[in-house]
Amino acid sequence: MNSNLGKSIAVLAKKFGDLEITERGDKEEPWTLAGDLVDVEKSLLVLSNDLFPQLLRDGASSQELKETLLDIGEEFRHIAYHIGNSKFYQYLRVTTPEHQVD
Fold it and tell me: What is the pTM of this model?
């Protein structure tokens, strides 16, 4: 983990801990939430800076487009995991069987 990322997580965890957003005694949730938000940000940057522009690239083959769409799906899966990982955002978890997030 690079030092800036570690500092970001620590700063967020401290702020979230001060908000008392979790049940009393759950000291891990602020750290979990902070780490999840940092990971979601990283995925969003990959999507916006790398993958979405690849869809618009001139000369991309059908196979390259398909691979990019699959890569986008993996970033979506990663984001969905982190949304469901924290207790704070558990109300956003998808609960229908056909859309279950593991």
Answer: 0.75
